[in-house]
Automatic annotation (TrEMBL), chains A, B:
Name by which UniProt lists this protein: Lysosomal membrane ascorbate-dependent ferrireductase CYB561A3
EC primary class: translocase
Catalytic activity, reaction form: Fe(3+)(out) + L-ascorbate(in) = monodehydro-L-ascorbate radical(in) + Fe(2+)(out) + H(+)
Quaternary structure note: Homodimer.
Domain Cytochrome b561, chain residue ranges per copy: 13-219
The entry's keywords: Electron transport, Endosome, Glycoprotein, Heme, Iron, Lysosome, Membrane, Metal-binding, Oxidoreductase, Translocase, Transmembrane, Transmembrane helix, Transport
GO molecular-function term, one example from the UniProt record: metal ion binding
Record field: transmembrane: 7-30, 50-70, 82-105, 117-144, 156-177, 197-218
GO CC term, one of those recorded: lysosomal membrane
Required co-factors: heme b
Matches recorded under InterPro entries: CYB561/CYBRD1-like, Cyt_b561/ferric_Rdtase_TM
Organism of derivation: Xiphophorus couchianus (Monterrey platyfish)
Length: 243, 243
């Protein structure tokens, strides 16, 4: 009971930090960076941090902890599997759009793509995420997938999920840091810590806090969904839920 | 048995990746950045990445996984506690020296300290690390610390230990990314990915891989040291080892 209360406190913190990240990145790019467009200009670039933080960090984190919510444990697992897969697909699509935004701006300005450490870490995270989603879909949702494969796949899926979150966190921090150095120069330098610098730094701190809370929820054994009961099989249209 | 073999493979990978990180950061700063000094010049700055990667990442990671080595399980825990505390103290001292290096260079050049997101994440990691070491020493090594306190402290200590590693990884990636943008401009830009850029990016990738392997070792329940047997108490001069 005490563990459940602690879980919901952590879960509320996770939801609140995620919303704060989204609000912060939207305010930064709409109010301080001039807003949004999809025309190869700097305004198209502004979609990059918004889509990455909202999709690859927040939606990803929300999707990762779905199975940990105790309210869902007494129910058939399949709808929660579908929700998990849908949230992750939404996150993946937003990440790919976020990539398209930055590639389009770079190409319009003849700037090379994928040279910085930030981009190496970010693209690795997205490639691993796409593989993770594909293998997860085939392994856990397709009816033809054997139970033994699911058993072997599950720990790898969970571990890789956490690892991708570590990669995306590192990519976000390096990206925000780099962006603030790029844009805050001249009269108002980053080193004088103007309001935009403070906002960007706060966004970074919120992302780190969000990542830590998600990883805390994922790593607590008491908060893991208990294995499904055999009786549940009857309610699952795609495949049994005993993996 | 299979689990032990897998552990030692992971442990060897951890040791090798750590050494590769140290070699990479030393080569980068000695051969590409002009070497080392302690005189307020740019050469003093070069100690910063070397000390942070060697101390705050590699030595910290090595210290974190000490208890997981199965060879040590049949023995009295105290020497391994002292080794854990000593490695972590070494890591903390190197991190503080690494901070001193960058503060001295900034002060000599009248550059403000602690304004960037990189520095915010890095200083938070070191403050948490210092607190973690102090509380860990008082809670787990001092004879006056009650057993109940140790039991409560242990999960917090383990969780905070992993969280600090996530913070230091993010700080390192943003720091390397920022440094490469600072130094690779003019004729040889970062975007043309010259050998120094490749080396710096590779260092970042090695740090991420090292962090993931350390977190993998820490998170595997099968690799956790079993609770000490009551008979072991007689061998521990400072306090019983049942926390």
């Amino acid at each position: 009971m005490r563990s459940t209360v602690t879980f919901y406190l952590c879960y509320l913190l996770c939801l609140a930090l995620g919303l704060a990240c989204v609000a912060c990145v939207c305010v930064w790019n709409s109010r301080w960076r001039g807003g949004f467009a999809w025309d190869g200009s700097g305004l198209q670039f502004n979609w990059h941090p918004v889509l990455m933080v909202t999709g690859l960090v927040v939606l990803y984190g929300y999707g990762a902890v779905v199975y940990r919510v105790p309210l869902t444990w007494g129910q058939n697992k399949l709808p929660w599997k579908l929700l998990h897969a849908a949230l992750m697909l939404g996150s993946l699509i937003m990440s790919i759009l976020g990539l398209c935004a930055v590639f389009a701006v770079h190409n319009a300005k003849n700037t090379p793509n994928l040279y910085s450490l930030h981009s190496w870490i970010g693209i690795t995270a997205i490639i691993l995420f796409a593989l993770q989603w594909g293998v997860g879909f085939a392994g856990f949702l397709l009816p033809c997938s054997p139970v033994l494969l699911r058993k072997l796949l599950k720990p790898v899926h969970v571990w890789l999920g956490g690892s991708i979150l570590l990669l995306t966190t590192a990519a976000c921090i390096s990206g925000i840091n780099e962006k603030l150095f790029f844009v805050l120069k001249g009269n108002v330098t980053y080193s004088s810590l103007p309001p935009e610098g403070l906002l960007g730094n706060s966004l970074g701190v919120l992302i780190i806090a969000f990542g830590l809370v998600v990883l805390k929820i994922l790593s607590n054994i008491k908060w893991q969904r208990p294995d499904s009961r055999p009786g549940e099989i009857a309610y699952t249209p795609l495949q049994d839920e005993n993996e």
